[in-house]
Amino acid sequence: MSTTHQQPTPMDIRPARIEDAAGVAKLLDQLGYDRTVEMVRRAIRASASDPESTILVAFMADKQIAGCLQMVFTRRLAEGDRGEIASLVVDADRRGKGVGARLVQAAVDRLRAQGVANLRVRCNVKRERAHRFYERCGFRRAKTQTVFDRPLSPGEWPSTTD
Ligand SMILES: CC(C)(COP(=O)(O)OP(=O)(O)OC[C@H]1O[C@@H](n2cnc3c(N)ncnc32)[C@H](O)[C@@H]1OP(=O)(O)O)[C@@H](O)C(=O)NCCC(=O)NCCS
Fold first, then answer.
1. Which residues face 65 on adjacent strands?
2. Residues 110-138: tens digit of each pLDDT
3. By residue range, what is the domain housing residue 78?
4. Residue 28's domain is classified under what CATH number?
């Protein structure tokens, strides 16, 4: 009896490296964020030396970046300490193949190993498929909020996609 359809898609997940910047920038563009390759390069460099931020990238057999996830550690006076998924996106051509679930599991494994007890993700109300995805990954709806921004110097308002 063949069990091929039950096998998980072969995938490699590791922390992002500088050379992943172009692939990650492409993914962020799909998420609705216009980040240049140089901006992403800087973010990957900063994250690599920040124990409270990890950017993970997932590769499938063709060695192309299939998805990325940034997790951060947040320390809030009222809510306490927790991990938070700051960004998660899977390439539009590779969605529905388990990449997102594997990235979330990798984040969970890493946070557990660090003794972190809770993980949160904030997801735009319009991303209904992503809500179902998170519920299937073991998350539960906690609350709905309105997000306010205020630029601190004259200039463009920050992106509000998520
Ligand atoms: C949400 C997302 C990260 C899930 O990753 P994935 O690799 O597609 O997910 P998996 O294969 O592990 O799980 C499949 C589930 O993901 C969700 N999903 C699948 N394709 C999707 C798509 N094109 N858009 C949004 N969610 C999708 C669905 O819940 C799907 O289950 P369903 O097919 O029964 O509806 C990915 O689809 C994505 O990048 N979506 C667009 C960006 C986004 O919404 N990111 C989350 C921001 S908080």
1. 59
2. 999 999 999 999 999 999 999 999 999 99
3. 13-136
4. 3.40.630.30
